[in-house]
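Incident review: delayed structure delivery

Summary: a single-chain prediction request sat in the queue longer than the usual turnaround. Root cause was a stuck worker, restarted by the on-call engineer. No data loss occurred. The affected request and its eventual output are reproduced below so the record is complete for anyone auditing the incident later.

Affected input:
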Amino acid sequence: MIEKFLKQELTGWHAWEVIYLLSVVTSIGVIAGYLGDSALGIASAVTGTLYTMLAGKGKVSCYIFGIFNTIAYGYIARSQKIYGDMMLNWGIYLPMMFAGFAMWFFRRDRDYCIIKERLSFRALIVFILSALAAIAVYAFLLRRMGGSQPYLDAFTTVISVMAMVLTLKRCIEQWICWTLVNLASVIMWIKVCISTGGESVATLLWWLIMLTSGVIFFVQWYISLKNDPNVGDGEC
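Output delivered after worker restart:
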């Protein structure tokens, strides 16, 4: 069974995708190691990268790497007093990783990649209004807790939760959300790196790569939905 699963996960890859994946993972490990980041930080960045790359490809195995990443990144966020990210990863992401594996496993195409969907216009409006309200409330709570960056923290946390829901539902709009989260996270971790003398460089590199990858995957999913009339004809 394991051999069959591995074969399915290796199906449907293009040469450039494999090269990109290996180059990104290797670069993070080498650069972060050279700059003296912690083993946990490097492991978190590498597994987080693998999770995103495999999710972008629509492979169920992404959740295997996602489980470790949520645990490790939550600990790193806690050490930097970024409590929103800590609670997000330990309280929400971790159980959703297991749910995502099951939900994706039974919704795959002939190449064992997930079948993609899109939000309806009505659902998109509800999504935006709900996100704005949740960000305002959560930022207030984080500020009362003494969080170091309550507004950015609230933004990334709320949009990440909603993006994760879209991810489980296989909606293309998840990549717009992830791009916003990644951009805010880059800003947040630049501040952390400056204040700690480069201690969390692996985490910053990871977010920079996630920012780039999110744009690439949005384009890929958009082309897939546009070119195949049988894909994503339902609504998330």
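Verification: The CA atoms of residues 32 and 201 lie 6 Å apart.
Action items: add queue-age alerting; document worker restart procedure.
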